[in-house]
Design brief:
Shape: globular
Bound molecules: adenosine-5'-diphosphate
InterPro entries: AAA+_ATPase (IPR003593), ABC_transporter-like_ATP-bd (IPR003439), ABC_transporter-like_CS (IPR017871), BCAA_Transport_ATP-bd_LivF (IPR052156), P-loop_NTPase (IPR027417)
Protein name: ABC transporter ATP-binding protein
Keywords: Amino-acid transport, ATP-binding, Nucleotide-binding, Transport
Organism: Acidisoma cellulosilyticum
GO molecular function, one term: ATP hydrolysis activity
Number of helices: 8
Largest sheet: 6 strands, mixed
Strand content: 25-35%
Length: about 230
């Protein structure tokens, strides 16, 4: 059965219907990509899962349990973490401080220290910039920091909103290599939003194509690659 299951989810912003009956599944250990143009509803889907926007219909289940609507802290404690679009690092805080902010939900100092060491191990580039203000990092480094920050709570499912945005192709590959390494070594499950399938078909197990708030097409990356 699915780790994450959305069934007929509807979200509105006032009169605008951002998600109209969105359904999708993510299985444990999978890398699933949600692909669609700007405005399709990708960020809203992640916000709905993470408890950031109210839904007017549908269900969202994590390991068979209905997720509470609009309870982001509670949902984070269930092992779900979101890497927002646009990185949103704290520019005046150092790399280490940014990571510590991510561990805030854990509360426990000894656990945070262990998480910090574990997360830093995946990002050698960040270790070199440990005491630099995050605002001085390159876009790729900021993306890695934003991912690292989301890992501080030791999540099982990580949602990454448009990690490629504004990054050079080689840097995008480096970011995806780290995401795949995390899947291998931590057994992480990944849901990733992207606008284009161009580089993603190589990395994803399954793809959902979203448009106007609903899924238009889905399949294995292999099948979609062959259909191109
Ligand atoms: P995306 O690239 O995922 O579509 P946007 O750049 O559209 O993200 O949105 C950035 C922020 O602005 C988000 O917090 C989103 O919820 C908000 N936003 C997007 N569109 C609107 C809108 N039409 N009215 C108000 N807020 C919006
Ligand atoms: P995507 O992530 O695929 O770019 P979004 O989920 O950001 O799409 O947006 C879906 C639709 O909802 C768009 O029409 C966008 O303008 C609108 N929208 C997003 N956030 C808000 C918001 N906070 N208030 C009003 N409209 C929004």
């Amino acid at each position: 059965s699915a780790m994450l299951e959305l069934s007929d989810v509807e979200v509105r912003y006032g009169r605008l219907v951002a998600l109209r009956g969105l359904s999708l599944e993510v299985h444990k250990g999978e890398v699933v990509c949600l692909i669609g143009p700007n405005g399709a509803g990708k960020s809203t889907a992640m916000a709905a899962i993470a408890g950031g926007v109210p839904r007017v219909a549908g269900s969202i289940r994590l390991n068979g349990q209905e997720l509470p609507a609009r309870k982001p802290e509670q949902i984070a404690r269930l092992g779900l973490s979101l890497v927002p679009e646009g990185r949103h690092v704290f520019g005046t805080l150092t790399v280490e401080e940014n990571l510590r902010v991510g561990g805030f939900l854990r509360g426990n100092a000894r656990e945070s220290a262990a998480a910090l060491e574990r997360v830093a191990g995946y990002f050698p580039r960040l270790k070199e910039r440990w005491t630099s203000p995050a605002g001085r990092l390159s876009g790729g480094e900021q993306q890695m920091l934003s991912i690292g920050r989301a890992l501080m709570t030791n999540p099982r499912l990580v949602m990454v909103d448009e990690p490629s945005l504004g990054l050079a192709p080689l840097i995008v590959d480096a970011v995806y290599e780290i995401l795949l390494e995390l899947r291998e070594r931590e057994g992480l499950t990944l849901l990733i939003n992207e606008q284009s399938s161009h580089r993603i078909l190589r990395f994803a197990d399954r793809i959902y194509v979203i448009r106007n708030g609903t899924i238009q097409l889905h399949g294995t990356a292999e099948a979609l690659r062959d259909g191109e």
